[in-house]
Specification:
Oligomer: heterodimer
Radius of gyration of chain B: 17 Å
Largest interface: A-B, 32 and 21 residues
Distance between the termini of chain B: 41 Å
Mean pLDDT of chain A: 90
Strand content of chain A: 25-35%
CATH topology of the largest domain in chain B: Glutathione S-transferase Yfyf (Class Pi), Chain A, domain 2
Shape of chain A: elongated
Low-confidence stretches of chain A: 245-250
Number of helices of chain A: 10
CATH class of the largest domain in chain A: Mainly Beta
Distance between the termini of chain A: 52 Å
Number of strands of chain B: 4
Structural class of chain A: alpha+beta
CATH class of the largest domain in chain B: Mainly Alpha
Order of helices and strands of chain B: EHEHEEHHHHH
Strand content of chain B: 5-15%
Structural class of chain B: alpha+beta
Strand order of the largest sheet of chain B: 2-1-3-4
Shape of chain B: globular
Mean pLDDT of chain B: 96
């Protein structure tokens, strides 16, 4: 028998007990090294054992409960998706969501962790698996060929009760099951399963039996020439991944989610839990939002409130506004549990730095949603933060979630207007190096925080907020040509019309949402030409790069623009 | 009282003492000794303190001590008010001393492999690597059964002892000697526990483990 790198068989790679919380187990299968870790929600991750950044083993990293942090430069990867959530060298940027580590299939069953080299075969229980309280024996690594190990195990069976060979390098006799984990051509691990809970003497007995078997096998293997080890090909990390992209260009994909739960979180705030139909949802970073495509054809942005590695569903909060012009009203009034909705992949206009000496989070009303997510991330990483939550009396949304946090969470309920300013001023204090404030709430509060912070010495780059509105006056007087490189079309954009409108007039389907340069939905790659940026979505360096633009408000300074559409 | 450690930053044996003194909260001064490439541990001034020409050496007022295991015992018996790091009970003392000897065997194998690969020392690399694997297998077995019996540490008390400190550094640095620990999952879990002892400190090549899950 020759081992194959593409063998689709599921093999055990660890005992369940090998994966306590906050530990990273070093796994091995078919010539590959694996970083295996259990998140605080119980989910087991099996990843390629290297950081995409500099190739350092993730098995020496830190399991933070919802994210795995590489020991070398601190890149963090999310539970379930293995998507990168934070790059310390670019603390102010959201990592491109396509940075994602290689994952392997995983199943936890019968006291063991199972994995396979690929997804080609569904997991199948071994014959007779059901109905027992399995106990995994102490694993026994052996420096011998897996097929030799299997043969030696088979020879342990008494003559009158020969071993029953099962698929996937396993066998059973006398009520004991043995699985041979093929580590490499010349290495294996014996994993035994007992159908009942053993006493200490039984465990010692099996350990002695298997130790002696190992010693015999290794003596025999030492006399033979060593087999050629498997040579897994490691995919090269693309240049795109190994350098930090300026911005994450959205792919425009939508995901169908099911409304798993809808509930009243506070007077006027409705919580929605949106779950993936199968598997998990994409990686997001604290501060990220999704576009929600509503049944009436509108698109609205909602912040994700989840904590790190929490990808089975996104929880959002929706404000029930009596005078709402239709977005949240539709959601609150017509969407029910069990309904399907389309959402975009998460995007982050509001990235959280995790290198601050002090982080102040200030929320007003429904503005709590992105800040709840931020607080949860900081909480899991044991970083300091203060969360100030201003609400009217009775409007405290997500109270139990906030009370579950370990950091400093201060509720300011029903304060008179004059006191809000003073409270914000004292919450901020005087700025000193590496302090950051994040604010989300009504525009009046945003302005108060910005002006108060500025007056107390906080520089612009330490004050973070998310625009849901572009208050700039848009100058649409220019006229120019746009060449759409992929669509092989050249269009004339007259004054008074946006690029987006002209594209639509010509039959193109292009995603957009706020259409005022605030949400980032229509972000487009610029191939040639000079952009006249008028949005509030891109930051200054992104604008200077002249490599992308928002087609809903921005225009051209040059007579011609070439876009990647 | 003034403790002075004659120290080489990259030495696991010197690190054992920095580790215990950090855990005990003991202030100490460091005199750097250039073990490599300067070979100052073979210089006359050093040999006058320790004729065996080995690091570390520790001075405590008028006293000059050598050998990391012996110094660990001295520090624990002198400064550990809890009495847990080097317990007085004769049976436990014997257990601890037994593991101090294992620690020396780890030095003679894992550290030797590291010195050969990283510092050009003339050791039989496959031989010392094999010796280290043999010790790690036994430690993994001991620790795996320990976990079943509710014992987290090398010795039987419900807390770590100098045995854990003495064995820890060259287990953690074994990969620098080409000795992987992927076959020793119980040993790897024990290194997490050591790295979570309050007062734990790092050295080059030994990273912190991050926080344990807080159970409220």
């Amino acid at each position: 028998m020759t081992l194959s790198l593409s063998d689709p068989t599921w093999y055990p790679i660890a005992s369940s007990d090998d994966l306590p919380f906050r530990h990273v187990y070093q796994g091995q299968l078919l010539g590959r090294e694996l970083a295996v870790w259990r998140a605080d929600d119980g989910n087991v991750n099996v990843w390629e054992n290297r950081c995409l950044h500099r190739g350092v083993r993730l098995s020496i990293g830190v399991n933070e409960g919802g994210e795995l942090k590489c020991q070398y430069h601190g890149w963090r990867y999310a539970n379930r998706s293995a998507g990168c959530t934070y790059i310390p060298a670019h603390p102010a940027d959201a990592p491109a969501r396509r940075i994602q580590n290689r994952t392997y299939p995983v199943r936890e069953a019968y006291g063991l962790i199972w994995s396979a080299a690929n997804d080609d075969q569904p997991f199948r229980p071994f014959p007779g698996a059901e109905g027992h309280d399995w106990f995994p024996l102490r694993p026994m690594p052996v420096n011998a060929a897996p097929e030799d190990v299997l043969a030696a195990l088979s020879a342990l069976a008494p003559d009158d009760q020969p071993a029953d060979l099962m698929p996937g390098l396993s066998l059973r006799f006398g009520g004991t099951y043995y699985f041979v984990q093929p580590v490499d051509a010349g290495r294996a691990v014996i994993r035994g399963l007992l159908a009942t809970q053993p006493d200490a003497t039984t465990l010692r007995h099996y350990n002695e039996l298997l130790s002696k078997l190992r010693d015999r096998l290794e003596r025999a293997a030492a006399k033979k020439p060593a087999p050629e080890p498997l040579k897994p090909a490691f995919e090269k990390v693309s240049a795109e991944l190994s350098t930090m992209p300026e911005i994450a260009v959205p792919r425009g994909n939508t995901i169908t989610v099911v409304v798993k739960r809808k509930w009243t979180s506070a007077d006027g705030v409705i919580g929605f839990e949106l779950a993936a139909r199968d598997g998990h949802l994409p990686t997001f970073q604290p501060g990220a939002h999704i576009d929600l495509h509503l049944p009436n054809g509108m698109t609205r942005q909602y912040s994700i409130t989840n904590g790190p590695g929490d990808l089975m569903s996104y929880v959002i909060g929706v404000k029930q506004e009596s005078a709402s012009k239709g977005g949240s009203k539709v959601l609150v009034e017509t969407v029910r549990e069990g309904d399907l909705l389309a959402i975009s992949e998460p995007r982050n206009n509001f990235p959280l730095r995790r290198d601050a000496t002090r982080t102040v989070l200030i929320a007003g009303g429904i503005g709590i949603t992105p800040l709840l997510s931020m607080a949860r991330f900081l909480d899991k990483s044991s970083l300091n933060y203060e969360l100030h939550y201003f609400t009217r009396a009775g409007d405290v949304a997500f109270r139990s979630e906030l009370e579950a946090l370990h950091g400093k969470v201060i509720f300011h309920t029903g304060l008179p207007r004059a006191e809000i300013g003073l409270t914000i001023a004292s919450a901020l204090g005087q700025w000193s190096m590496a302090q950051h404030v994040y604010v989300c709430g009504p525009s009046a509060m945003l302005e108060t925080v910005r002006s108060t912070a500025a007056a107390q010495g906080w520089p612009d780059e330490a004050i973070h907020f998310e625009y849901f509105k572009n208050d700039k006056v848009i100058d649409d007087s220019s006229a120019f040509e746009v060449e759409l490189a992929r669509s092989a079309m050249t269009l004339h954009v007259p004054s008074g019309k946006t690029i987006l409108e002209v594209m639509r007039d010509n039959g193109l389907t292009v995603p957009s949402s706020c259409e005022q340069g605030a949400c980032g939905t229509c972000l487009t790659t610029v191939i040639e030409g000079e952009v006249d940026h008028q949005d509030v979505y891109l930051n200054d360096s992104e604008k200077r790069s002249n490599s992308c633009m928002m087609t809903c408000v921005s225009r051209a300074k040059s007579p011609r623009l070439v876009l990647d559409i | 009282m003034a403790i002075t450690l004659y120290d080489f930053e990259l030495s696991g044996n010197c690190y054992k003492l920095r580790l215990l003194m950090n855990i005990l909260g003991l202030p100490f001064d460091i005199v750097p000794v250039d073990f490599f490439p300067g070979r100052q541990h073979k210089a006359d001034w050093f040999l006058r303190m320790n004729p065996f020409g080995q690091l570390p050496v520790l001075k405590d007022d008028g006293l000059t001590l050598s050998d990391s295991g012996a110094i660990l015992a001295y520090l624990a018996k002198t400064y550990d008010t809890t009495g847990q790091w080097f317990p007085d009970a004769p049976a436990i003392t014997a257990e601890v001393l037994r593991w101090h000897v294992v620690a020396d065997d780890i030095t003679a194998s894992s550290s030797a492999a590291r010195l050969a690969l990283g510092y050009g020392y003339d050791f039989d690399i496959p031989k010392v690597q094999k010796q280290a694997h043999r010790i790690f297998r036994l430690m993994d077995e001991h620790l795996w059964f320990g976990e079943r019996e509710g014992r987290d540490w090398l010795c039987s008390p419900a807390h770590p002892t100098t045995a854990d400190i003495a064995c820890f550094p060259y287990v953690m640095l074994s990969e620098e000697g080409g000795i992987g620990r992927e076959d020793y999952p119980a040993l790897r879990r024990w290194t997490d526990r050591v790295r979570r002892i309050p007062g734990f400190t790092v050295m080059s090549g030994i990273f912190p483990a991050g926080r344990a899950l807080q159970t409220a």
